[in-house]
Amino acid sequence: MSRTMTVAAKTASPAGAAPTAKEGGRSALGWVLHNVVWIWLIALVVIFGLFNQFFFTVNNMQNIMVQATVLGMLGLAVALPLLVAEIDLSLPANLGFSSAIGAMAYSDWGLPWFPGMLVGVGVATFIGFFNGLCITKLRMVSLIQTLSMMIILQGALLALTQGRTITNLSDGYVWIGQATIGGWPIMPFIFVIALVGVGILLSNTVFGRRVYAVGGNPVASNSAGIRVDRVKILTYTLAGFLAGCAGFLLASWQMAITSNQGSSYLLYAIAAPIIGGVSVFGGRGNVVGVLGGVLLLTVIQVGLAIISVPSFYVGIIGGFMIFIAVAIDAIRVRYFS
Amino acid sequence: MTVPMTAGSQAADDYVLRVENLGKVYGGAVALRDVSLAIRRGSIHGLLGENGAGKSTLVGIMSGQRQPTTGTIYLDGVALGHADVPSMEEAGVFLVTQEPMIIDHLSAAENLMLGIWPRRFGFVNWRKLRKDAARMLAGTGIDLDRPAGKLDAVARRKLNILRAMFSGGKVIILDEPTAALTVEDRQQLFDFMRRLKADGVTFIFISHYNDEILDICDAVSVLRDGILAGGSEDVGSLTSAQLSELVLGRGLVLFQRERREFAEDAPAVQLRDVVGPSVRVPALDIRPGEVVGFTGLPGAGAKELARCIFGLTPVQSGTIRFADETETHKLPTHPRDAFESGIAFLSDDRRRDGAIGQMSIGANISLSSLASVARSGFLSKDAELKLSDRYFAAMGIKAPSAAVAVDTLSGGNQQKVCLGRVLATGPRVLILDEPTRGIDVGVKQDVLRIVDELSRTGVAVIIVSTDTDEITRAVDRVCIFENGAIARELTGSEITNDRLRGLEPS
């Protein structure tokens, strides 16, 4: 805003004061629209709380934060390819498949749970790396390549589990999903660590700067001396790693791996970063936005359950709430950028 | 200001298009203030001005793309109320933008008839379309079945102009139609415009080049900072210096480099056996502090060689050796390697291949030298700020601060940001591809001056340009490319505008 203000000051016209006041109103509106996700989030918390006092309890807040953890890790993972103007649809399927591999490494191959878990996260990371190779070196279209990878991984998970749910997870494996410190669950701390880590990576490192540059204009980035393919492969690899961690956390929390583990997260994991301001055209967005998107979606889900909306209506009401957030954001982009 | 004001009282019929007291305010910024001018029927009317002077806003209003805040447009003497693009096109006013609106995979004929397909029973009548298109394209040398993507730049521009005409265009506004054209192409385009003018078409012609305005226009209007700075209905009475003064509002000193002879110096860089796609250069030496011009027709090898040296185009063979090194290296295979070995390159296509528009000026400046402002991968904000502020100031970029996003800047300032970025890498060899294309005459002098000063510190500079005037002013030596090879070199006083123009094969 400061830029338009100075311009307005320079062209001091006889009616100089009037446009300045108007500018002020405009900037206030701009601020509201800019932070619409957070304002909408607070509004929904208040509304849900008015319907049911239980919503404001510490217990429920903890529940929301635990619920937000897996979606948050996955949302961060999805945001990374989006920032370089690509997409990875296979991440939720990667989450399910890799956690099953990790569990089987423990139950079938006799590895202790911790190395088994590392195998699972490693597999997820490698799948991310492989996706990156396909879309850069083979020039496959990321939308279709990762769609096919998603179908492959969903099928592989079904084949691995033979349609059954894996429940023989060791106590060590499920510990992190259940443990609490002073009554507070540990899971959200992992999300916070991931959030801060990715945040620092994006805003304080050379790699992060390159991610934004590649997403903003890949051709210009190449000419500016950025190895665009390498940056893209790294973002996909990191996304795979985060999905693997999310897979471990989800299995540990649920103490089970179903034959379609993770699939239900697909649309929410893509919606969360986009609601939070990550551009599907690349180069725009940050982790704070992702956090906002994740919390908004989680609050909607939990809130609708708590105020006992009949399950037949949860989908349509939740959908509308997301729609409103995205529509307001679109208005912001249209009038304020 | 003086000339058009009398137009209102005279026979309105003389003027096909007239605007009175036009004003346009964006947010708080005044883009256009109280502009009145009149376009004589069947004339070519030049529109001159620096980047951001309001030319695009003015023609945007004239063509109905933007709505004026104040003022009136008269077409054939009739005041128009609300004017949008369809109604202006209906009335015969067409804007032909810098980027030809052409669909590459459709044929020339289809592009010509885009949106105005001759129809029969609701289906496109292909036979009539081809017949009409063939008639329109007769004598233009454009093959009507050729995919538009395979046409050269002039043919594409012509196609765009023809389409405007064919849709009933009486007034055709050309926004910098000569950018990226060679002297040859330019003349061809001008001949074409003169032919259409003889048929009664009126043109409004936006250009950065005085010689073009003087060459083809009947009348001229000059905009400066959103106001009409002056103009003339008789261009013949104006000199190039007078035009420049109107554009800038002060006497402009055109940059002229003091040429030096470098023959005895040890070369700063030696290129050997460069063979790449459509380029073959056995040997080229450049001395420290020398500015070498690469020129020639498009595709002749000047641009191609530059891109090979920087690693943007893969080569079959080619080595480079710097003065202070004993061993020769293969040419870089990626711009990253090029920057690291001290070769910097500025692309000719700012939009596609220049700055990252949504990033700040500062982030763009440091983008190619991030390693130098980081420790083990973590950016040092202080070091980065120091680097970006230094080049932000040195380039004279007109912006409130280096934190402003680049896509809010004018073309000339964006070019300065890009130049700042490549200079921040501290190059030994600087390659500039059309460094002043599409930027106004004032910024152009700034850019050439910066390059001149840099060369005095011992940097070897290559300027790729088809602008012969720029070449004569900025370089010590010219390499003229033909068929992928250096056909001739000119040095010192041999470098004259006429000689360079004459050397273009006709």
TrEMBL record, chain A:
It comes from the Bacteria. The keyword Membrane applies. The chain crosses the membrane at residues 33-52, 64-84, 113-133, 140-161, 181-202, 233-253, 265-282, 287-306, 312-331. The keyword Cell cycle does not apply. Keywords: Cell inner membrane, Cell membrane, Membrane, Sugar transport, Transmembrane, Transmembrane helix, Transport. It is found in: Cell membrane. Pfam families: BPD_transp_2. It is a multi-pass membrane protein. InterPro entries: ABC_transp_permease (IPR001851). Its main location: membrane. Part of the binding-protein-dependent transport system for D-xylose. Probably responsible for the translocation of the substrate across the membrane. This is Xylose transport system permease protein XylH. The lineage of its organism: Bacteria, Pseudomonadati, Pseudomonadota, Alphaproteobacteria, Hyphomicrobiales.
